[in-house]
Amino acid sequence: MSAPRVSVLLPAFNALATLPRAVASLREQTFADWELLVVDDGSTDGTAEWLLAQAAQEPRLKVISQPHAGIVAALNRGLAEARGEFIARMDADDESFPDRLAEQIAFLDAQPDIGVVSSLVEFAGDRAASQGYALHVDWLNSVVEPEQISLNRFVESPFAHPSVMFRRELVARHGGYRDGDFPEDYELWLRWLEAGVRMAKVPRELLRWHDRTARLSRTDPRYDVESFYRLKADYLARWLKQHVPAACSRRSAGLMAEGSDCNSPALLVWGAGRATRKRVKLLEAHGIAVSAYVDVDPNKHGRSRAGHLVLAPEQIPPGAFHLGYVARRGAREFCRNFLEQRGGVEGRDFLFVA
Question: How far apart are CA 172 and CA 79, in angstroms?
Fold first, then answer.
């Protein structure tokens, strides 16, 4: 039997309530040359029995059963079994639109420089009850082009995991999913982006993303806010060491002191609130030397926060590199406009993070 063009990888654990809907959405694809690898991760709710009954009717469905070992083990087991040129991810509680596989394969065929392609996603939850999640989907759908994805990688994970398709060769070249106290998908994107993999999105909704209270992103500590911050700090610190010579600490009043023998630009952090200072501590633990904070609040100007002087935007020295940790609505746009008016270029002179 010849290998299919795409292997759809779907881990499942006690997913009988939603799995039939997900599988049905794949059987309705307009592109037919696929295999569906469902890794049953030790389910006890009848998931395995339902899958085996479906596989008897659908030769493209392959059931892989293993004792319960968690999502990373299930994903890597599926990657090891996959035969397709492309790997498409899918979760048991989501739905792929009928032309999803066709659209993403056509995108990768037309753009060989792109390694990972996602899409816009339709939020299928209650926007009023889950406003934060809905706003996250809105943000995801605004980050589409490779440059946008690269520049915004340290703000949030740029993809809904079940919406992606990637070239299988990337796994052999850069490694698959890693297990740890961090979100496994975000770590994969950060690692592959660091390796130079270009990523993009089909600018159409191709996945219906359901927001269930029981989904791992809501219940597993690997996906809590602090886990994201720790992971981002690790990769952001390496990015800064590569792109910004920030080894010299020019702190507080000594920031613009004459006679300094340090040729590296000052590293300034926008936002001097408690949450930002907590994030900066994680960077400093990786050897990043922040020179000062920048804040629009005049009550903070000239004060010291965690050993760093707080500057007004008008006081920033020339040649500085800026990290925008601001989160209040409109603050990021203010910072971008301010820095661009001074000749700054995003990615070269400033970067937004969270």
Answer: 10
Say how far apart CA 205 and CA 201 lie, in whole Å. Answer: 10
What is the average per-residue pLDDT within 96-125? 97
Architecture of domain 6-223 in this structure: Alpha-Beta Complex (3.90)
Compute, in degrees rounded to 10, the torsion defined by CA atoms 228, 229, 232, 236. 170
Burial of 149 per CB tally in 10 Å (0-12, 13-18, 19+): buried
Task: Write the single-letter amino acid at 82.
Answer: A
Burial pattern 243-270, b for ≥16 Cβ within 10 A else e, equals ebebeebbbeeebbeeeeeeebbbbbbb
Angle between helices 184-194 and 225-243 (to 10 degrees): 10
CATH 3.40.50.720, the chain: domain bounds: 231-352
What's residue 258's pLDDT? 36
Q: Please give the model's pTM, rounded to 2 decimal places.
A: 0.92
Q: What percent of the chain has pLDDT over 90?
A: 85
Q: Residues 231-352: name the CATH superfamily.
A: NAD(P)-binding Rossmann-like Domain (3.40.50.720)
Strand pairing report for 198-209 and 95-96: antiparallel
The structure tokens 């030397």 sit at 289
Q: Which two tokens mark 219? A: 């219940």
**Residues forming CATH 3.90.550.10 domain(s) in the chain:** 6-223
Where would I find the beta strands (DSSP E) of the chain?
6-12, 34-41, 61-66, 86-89, 95-96, 114-123, 165-167, 198-209, 267-270, 292-294, 304-305, 308-311, 321-324, 350-352
Q: Is 75:176 a contact under the CB 8 Å cutoff?
A: yes
Q: For the chain, what is the mean pLDDT?
A: 92
> Structure tokens of 133?
């999640």
Counting Cα atoms < 13 Å in the Cβ hemisphere of 143 gives: 22
As a whole number, mean pLDDT of residues 82-104 equals 98
